[in-house]
């Protein structure tokens, strides 16, 4: 898997964290450097860890399904992308965390349990991506590092620009992220069916 594909996958996965970073900064009166660091570090760390966990879970099953791995990768990425797009159209919910995330951002969401919840909620999709990469026999460490760094960077960016943007922007980012994940799944499917 080349760097451009990994980068696009990382950006797609980071859209939830980016959207939540925007929403989080909108909920804060003043965004401090410590708040930016806490949120971006934890979202990046969890985005790094989740694909590794998924990879180890999926790798043990890859020998049994090697003939179908590209279909599984396509299906998982399409489901994740479709879920992101679907959730972006829910008007009564925050961009990427549901009702519990709404409660998490009422105080200072960059502290304690709220921070952990946001980090897990925005990185859970990366777990399935790790399973997909195991089935494609991709070494997980490099993609996971790229995913973590990209997520951390976009979280910083999201918090810095969040006060200037409306909350509607978060749903647009989720739509773009979902489309990117579906496109990557389609690319994997086409490569394995026609070019392997």
Automatic annotation (TrEMBL):
Keywords for this protein: Cell membrane, Ion transport, Manganese, Membrane, Transmembrane, Transmembrane helix, Transport
GO molecular function, one term: manganese ion transmembrane transporter activity
Pfam families (alphabetical): Mntp
Main location class: membrane
rRNA processing found in the keyword field: no
Keyword Transmembrane helix: yes
GO (cellular component) term, any one: plasma membrane
Membrane topology: Multi-pass membrane protein
InterPro entries, alphabetized: Mntp/YtaF, Put_MntP
Subcellular location: Cell membrane
Chain segments annotated as transmembrane: 6-29, 36-56, 113-134, 140-157, 178-195
Protein function: Probably functions as a manganese efflux pump.
Family: Belongs to the MntP (TC 9.B.29) family.
PANTHER family per UniProt: MANGANESE EFFLUX PUMP MNTP-RELATED (PTHR35529:SF1)
Protein name, entry field: Putative manganese efflux pump MntP
Organism: Candidatus Wallbacteria bacterium GWC2_49_35
């Amino acid at each position: 898997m080349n760097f451009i594909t990994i980068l696009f996958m990382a950006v797609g996965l980071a859209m939830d964290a980016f959207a939540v970073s925007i929403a989080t900064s909108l909920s804060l009166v003043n965004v401090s450097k410590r708040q930016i660091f806490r949120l971006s570090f934890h979202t990046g760390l969890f985005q790094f860890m989740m694909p590794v966990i998924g990879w180890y879970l999926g790798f043990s099953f890859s020998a049994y399904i090697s003939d179908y791995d590209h279909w599984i990768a396509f299906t998982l990425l399409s489901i994740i992308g479709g879920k992101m797009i679907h959730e972006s159209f829910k008007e009564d919910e925050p961009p990427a965390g549901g009702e519990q995330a709404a409660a998490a951002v009422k105080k200072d969401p960059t502290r304690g349990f709220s921070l952990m919840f946001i980090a897990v909620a925005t990185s859970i999709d990366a777990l399935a991506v790790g399973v997909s990469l195991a089935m494609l026999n991709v070494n997980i460490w490099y993609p996971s590092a790229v995913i973590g760094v990209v997520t951390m960077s976009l979280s910083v960016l999201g918090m810095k620009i969040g006060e200037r943007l409306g909350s509607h922007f978060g749903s647009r980012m989720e739509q773009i992220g979902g489309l990117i994940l579906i496109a990557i799944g389609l690319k994997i499917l086409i490569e394995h069916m026609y070019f392997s």
